[in-house]
Batch of 2 targets.
Target 1
Amino acid sequence: MWTPRISDIGNDQGAQMHTLEAIMAATIMVAILLFAVQATSLTPLTSSTANAHIESQIYIMGQDMLTALDHAPYGQNSDLKNEIINWNGEMYVWNGTNYQSDDNKSNSLNGTVVDMLELVAVENGIAHNIQFSYSTASGRENYYIYNGDPSDNAVIISRKVLLSDSDVGNTTFYETTTSIPDIDTTTALYNIVDVKLTLWRM
């Protein structure tokens, strides 16, 4: 009959202790990982996640607006281009009922761009600015529509519109009115206007 030796009993106890230590160490590691994941994970209810989702929605909405306004049938100007061509150089501010000139209170905007802004932005409580940026010797940017300083969560969507001499007609009068110069008097190119639409939640 076999009887265990003292050395065998010692080896068994040592092995059991090592196994127990390994299980405890693994348990501790799993607990630490779970704690770390729960402490750093973002849920859909987290403020930063919600803000990022809203910003993404507003950005897509702004892109759709400019895309729709810049679309035109063959041989015709888009509504966005006509807005630039017919601009009188003034800045307009939303006063609660319409876009009123900051210099001349009797002047107000109307047309497709206004209809789009009122339907999409105003009715959804989204503040907005539109700037016309164009080429000069030092570069220049003017507000077309101004509704205050954007928040930190504002998004900017831009679209470039090419103007030719034939688009603006009297180039001297147009430059005097809008400050947008003819960047190349030797060609039919007049200027390239970068329309910047800034949107943010009020």
Target 2
Amino acid sequence: METVQLMRMANEVRKGALTAVYSAKSGHPGGSLSAAEIDTYLFFEEMNIDPENPDKPDRDRFVLSKGHTTPAYYATLANRGFFPVEDLKTFRKVGSYLQGHPDKKNTPGVDMSSGSLGQGISVATGMALSAKLSREDYRVYTLVGDGELQEGQVWEAAMLAAHRKLDNLVVIVDNNNLQIDGTIEEVCSPYPIDKKFEAFNFHVITIDGHNFTEIESAFLEARKTKGKPTVIIAKTIKGKGVSFMENKAGWHGTAPNDEQYKLAMEELERAGEALCQKL
């Protein structure tokens, strides 16, 4: 896809994520909106996947370690063709296969039931190690929150991944600098994130997580990196794309009301129309 097409798709992911949270009257919009470009690039450009055969053995694996940001994850999967976009309106409803955290058993395209922070990256490390032991070529990607880096299990996984030279593992840190109680610096600072991963012998790349040119370059660099895992530290804006949500910790886990949803969707519609004119 061309860059403008990717930008348009990220905008659609944001619309789908907000629709899911609004329909459920609960969920996590802030961190979903900050991850829209990363999710879009992974599922539309980077990963070897097939919506018609979601369990094919040689597929690349993705683990949403920050498992509460399913609104963007589901919106990405839906737009990629794993299930109908209309089903996003069933998010968190009783009987829906689109629950608040990923459910591998019931949701097409989901490789791990995640949600307990720190565990996703641990399982992703295990998946990457399994590929190495089985001499299989698939790659493993995991999206981690910057607040999630406060979990000790993250660093246990990082230590093992580097020790086993898992160059088929790519960790993406959604570094939007906010968690539910405020900035990550105020709550329990994980900074400097890059130096910490360097100390664990990761190949470190820092990018603007909303810039598709930088995102593409980072994933290409990760593929060329041999003998160690890669971490991509994506500098992002919580609530990106909706002006009144941007950089507001209060939108970590708050659903928009009727008026707020209308304003947000109008803003995203205008952004989408502007991108259409660039095609």
